[in-house]
Write a structure and sequence with these properties.
The structure is a homotetramer. By secondary structure, chain A is mostly helical. The first copy, chain A, contains 19 helices and four strands. In chain A, about 60% of the residues lie in helices and about 5% in strands. The longest helix of chain A is centred in the first third of the chain and has 37 residues.
């Protein structure tokens, strides 16, 4: 462990997702695909029908690292695997990889592993969305100032805030569902994609392997599956990462000493120098990792334009790109889930903050009321701007209006107290949350995961 | 024109798409949204019911640049628009923008303009896909060497090549269809997204505006629509751009002097210095612009994490990002369409190239045949590798096999001539193209564009 | 203007920088380079010696847009220019562009225009740095709480803050100086870079053109100058943009309603809906444009790996990339300069904020003092953390310590009041600012701009 | 090993560079910095003078992973380290980390490790540049066709090609030298950067630590060193990566079956399916990794805009970014070095390729000669374009000119044979290479590495 250079090998990412991308699991999945192919070859008469199960047994004895020891000499990992199985697995070894090209194995392996990875990410994301919906319901009337440009705008509620995040994240959930039909597909079409070695048995072999692995084939491919599927996946992850970043930024900002409406209630050292610090470090890690997630998009996009029926430049970059991108999101989802479970909301502080501007945040409501009372909107705007500015942060707006010779004619104190209140300006919040809940529930209850790998 | 610094203002992009993003059309669409809002305000009794049509007439007389002259003073464009309409349009001017926030207007305008833009891009993309399908059918048996790693692999056909591109591009078409339900939505929920100024009439107003503009509302928003929709759109454009880049790279490489299987048959100067040059400049421009399209993704992703109910940092960047990204793709689609209509395929040269390696490209077929005849696959591989290498580029492989003491036992000359041929190795191509055609047709015949803006 | 789609053509960027990148100025500079070449051809006997001045005169009559009207037919802008000069400028027209390739003209034009652009950017950047140094001196003792993780840390001063930004920006200034020797160079080496057409007069021609334009040549090139120079430039601009973003973010955060230590004192509309808003919109625009600046790096990096002696894929992308990147920074520098001149610092609010935590921000000082008094550092840390936490935001730390049975033994009230103060913890600030000032002055007084274009 | 998910932990990157970034070495370097600080504290009387050597000894017994076991509880790695040293190292443990903040340790550790990393990268890069210069000298007259747009342009030589790459890479070398003064600096200024805890001994402590570690301090910092230094470093690595990508792309293209001027002469399996393949896999890996290197720039740029005196979002992202970026380049340099040592140049094939166009590649020379003989350049261009096109790839250009009624008047067969030759058009190549060699030698002989870590 102390010899590792990559944090994903010891520190970031869950055990569950990490185990999908280990050398061990990659090789085991290669073998799984080779065996599915052998089964198909057996069915169509290109190999003895019993061979796939013999190889399955024989393959269990192989050390995955042998592939890479052999690769050091042969310069090709899948070819090394085929040779080792060929040499070590007796008569049946003769048929291993027959008619296939490396990327029949590699791209199908990616499909199998990423199917599992997406299922896990989706499960974690759904958990977060459900937690946000819960928080939305719990805090439907917990008032907090809405902020635009970092400035106090109109009061909203924490429930409204959380419902917005639930909606936003559900959009990513929907994307993760939709991309699957493009990304998770069988690639079993041989060199250059023409199934040439299998002759007229090609489509049958493809069909059998597909059923065995529960994968639909690409209708056509070059020697490799089209790379836009990976680019879409990495982009969708980067979008999700940026949404989690937005949520983390919210928590970080609301945790500011001056604001103090939210904090991460976790026992830990805040600073190695300053003992009093209460830093939102989970949220900050989410924002930090979001930058990494965004970075990977560039490489994923560059991988699309491979030359002709393929070049190899996607290979080394995907070896890094795919596991690191998935593990980055995995850690971010873990952290977000943890963050949402440890944050405390200080309702009193939130309520105090609403009144910091002494009523100026309701200025827009006054404009609307004046229009109702016969003013032109743009003139009401100017008038209210003047008076808001005059008293800003110093004097109470209600008082100022009641003392204003022009405006006092239009409002009674009672009316002002009623309309210049969090309750008045958040009347629609409950219904908006309800509408969101319905919309989001529909998305996250999408059936998926019929097949597992 | 000679004062322009941006190529999209005079040189790149079609007139049709450019006209969507002019200052003129942006402002006209802002006004359209304000009028739809006024109609709704009229319906619910917050404004006189006839006002929307009066303002419609009055707005026609306004010079869009006036907004920006006013903005220079006021520092806010939508506020300037509201003021100008308020001042110039008599009694009804009083109600303009009532209860709305700028981004009710701006985000709804983006939805309207991008709906049109997507329709145009999709139409152009469909045209290209259809052209590729045509070319696939026309060239179903036009042989060409398949190339992997820049090296000759197995023969394929041009039809197979084009069908692959048709499939790949159809995947982008599908994405452009799917993202619409997330991107093209009404944002009409006032400051901080709570419809506060409209009180209990908020949902009704939203509903009326939505029907008027043929837009579904977001179920919930902050002060702005969620930015992940834009990021997804820009990412999907970048993926499409990278696929067009791949097609352009194909043409550029096949146009190489040594390959000469394809060329852009256009009359023009190839080089300012070298009169003989026949450069694939349309394809090169596509590849060049693809880099620009990829670039924009970073900014689009960074726009997602706005603070709280919004900050303004998306505004300036989207003003640049959105029109430039759409126009980049517009030019790329125009260029791709042109490229596909001017390229000539030199079938004879393609056929000659297939034989450059004197048969070595069929080596894989020999391996499979030897396995059928009882060899172990990995031993057959080694044997064929040896003989291929021995004669590579110098001697005919058929002859070499017939002279090889070991291999000559397994093959007759007739059998070799039959199986070491483009015809033999492309048997499945026709059916693959057909399968692709069916798959792609289904995607591009998706109904869309019920509403126009 | 209302027909423009690009904000840099009417709204963003200074007139001065915009004028460098207009079609008009690009073409005028192409002509300038052609004339310098003609002068050299005249000197070495490959053209009549008087021709360069005749062409200079003749060229003045040419409408730059003619080049692009011709290009529409010929498909090549520099070739079109050479033809037009050839046709319209009599006997001397015969020699225009002799032996040159397009990118001798284009890359040398970029060198000339970017030399001017860099000079302007550097001048503006120096202005900002000088303003920051002034502010640093002015506010050397204006206390403000230092913030890490958004949490109050130790007090610092505004002068210290500004000095940090001055140092950071000076690092960018230094980079802008250092990159010039790689970017601003003559490219005058003909097709494929071998000066083939000029025979043994090549080096002489290059030398004369270089002297004429005040440019050192690249020691060797392909058909084009190496693209890493542009990538470095765009990267350096993106780094600078991100630093300005950091400064803008500082202002945006300090402008928060709850913090209110700084605000942009500008008369304008803050929000189209909410009349009371005082939004930091200049700062927000800086942060918004920074995203655009960062975006361009990807394309610039992708332009480096051109094929062989060149391909054309840099051309279309640089047409967009270079002017847009420079103009983005130009606008950002303008905005930063404006922002620094309009911000007001509310010293009283800053002082009040320091005490918000009732002394907890000095906890580190107590740890150090306890170590001086014999405690182990890690034990002192734990003790002080406990007490800080116990009273955090509620009770005064001085009082708490004086009441603590263990700690009260170590401190008198007077000592505590002396060390738990902004004055005590900022003792080194003045000297740090001074050291920075010396360091920065040295960097920004670098001589440059001997040559102008 | 088989449990690893990151290729840099077992497959890519040299042992030498990997060992710099292991958990083990990171922690050892943290301790080294703590000890240097303790030495300084001893010198100025804030700790017993013998403590630094006691702690040095004591620290040797600590297992680096203990830090992270403790961190799991405390949530802070440097604080954990300070505690462990404090608890385990007796009386002197009391003074560990006194007055310092975590990033005094972390940023100084980055400086020390990156100084070593840059030295190694620079050594490897210099080796490659020297190899390229050797190849340039060896192949000064090895003719090869120059290619622009993938089309044959004028002949050049392999030596000229290699000299161009040497020049381009030397520009990166120069950048790696120049950035060091900004990146490799001491950060020893305590919380928020004001040296508050050390009182007036701050500058002295900083000075002593700096001398101990052979590092100049930043003149001023916030709580962390400015992040633009890292962004510059990652950008410079990405530029270098893109240049290596360009060289690799050259090799990949020249290795194409139809071109076959270069190949990687390595014994290995080319394809798991096709035994005849001779794929340029080293070059392809370089191009693949270049995409990863470019990707990281985005995250590095985003790390610059930290909030106020710091936020933590750089931390998690740099843990990934910095080691991965350096190791990516390390592998690329290793691969490039290997590639250059194994490639074979097929001079005969290169010579044959030059004549593929039957002389058309010399068309530009004919234009120049015709101008010398009195033609106008643009008319000569048109005439030569016509005749080149007429015979392109079919007929010999010399013959065509001698048969042309107009042109035959201007040229004798002997003259044509003399000027339409690789020798004639590469006359300046030797001198260009020499000039490059001088330029490059000066850059790579820059003294550096006085200090090691």
């Amino acid at each position: 462990m102390s010899n590792n250079v990559c944090v994903f090998d010891w520190r970031y990412g869950s055990r569950e997702v990490r185990s999908l991308f280990t050398v061990e699991n990659m090789v085991r999945t290669y073998i799984k695909v080779e065996i599915a192919l052998l089964k198909a070859l057996g069915s169509v008469g290109l190999a003895p029908p019993y061979c796939f199960s013999e190889i399955e047994e024989c393959a269990n004895k192989i050390d995955p690292m042998d592939i890479y020891r052999r690769e050091a000499v042969m310069g090709h990992d899948i070819a090394s695997l085929a040779f080792i199985l060929g040499e070590k697995c007796g008569e049946c070894g003769k048929y291993v990889h027959l008619g296939a090209t490396s990327y029949d194995i590699v791209d199908t392996t990616w499909a199998l592993i990423l199917r599992d990875a997406i299922n896990i990410l989706r499960r974690k994301l759904r958990g977060i969305i459900e937690k946000l919906l819960e928080l939305a319901k719990e805090h439907v009337h917990t008032y907090v100032i809405g902020r635009t440009h970092g400035q106090h705008a109109l009061p909203i509620t924490f429930g409204f805030k959380f419902a917005n995040y639930a909606y936003e994240l559900a959009r990513s959930y929907e994307r993760l569902v939709e991309l699957e039909k493009r990304l998770i597909r069988l690639k079993m079409s041989g060199s250059v994609g023409t199934m040439a070695s299998w002759g007229d048995k090609g489509f049958l072999i493809e069909d059998i392997v597909g059923k065995e692995l529960c994968l639909e084939p690409h209708p056509i491919t070059t020697q490799v599956a089209p790379r836009d599927g990976f680019a879409e996946f990495i982009s969708v992850l980067a979008i999700l990462a940026s949404q989690l970043d937005r949520l983390a930024l919210e928590i970080r900002e609301l945790s500011r000493t001056e604001i103090s409406e939210v904090y991460e209630a976790v026992e830990r050292v805040g600073s190695s120098a300053m003992p009093h610090k209460r830093n939102p470090v989970i949220a900050e890690r989410i924002s930090g990792l979001a930058k990494i997630a965004r970075s990977f998009v560039t490489a994923a996009l560059e991988n699309i334009a491979l030359m002709h029926e393929r070049d190899l430049t996607n290979s080394s970059s995907e070896r890094i790109l795919i596991p690191h991108a998935v593990l980055t999101l995995d850690q971010m989802l873990e952290d977000t889930s943890k963050m949402l479970s440890v944050i405390k909301i200080d309702k009193d502080k939130a309520r105090i903050n609403i009144d910091l501007t002494k009523g100026a945040v309701y200025s827009e409501i006054l404009v609307t009321k004046l229009v109702e009372k016969g003013w032109a909107r743009h003139e009401a705007y100017v008038k209210i701007k003047e008076i808001s500015k005059a008293v800003y942060l110093r004097e109470d707006l209600v008082k100022a209006i009641l003392q204003d010779p022009e405006l006092s004619k239009y409002f009674s104190e009672n009316e002002l107290l009623a309309i210049l209140s969090p309750e008045y300006v958040t009347k629609n919040v409950e219904k908006l949350i309800e509408r969101t809940l319905n919309h989001v529930q529909k998305i996250i209850s999408t059936e998926y995961g019929k097949c597992t790998s």
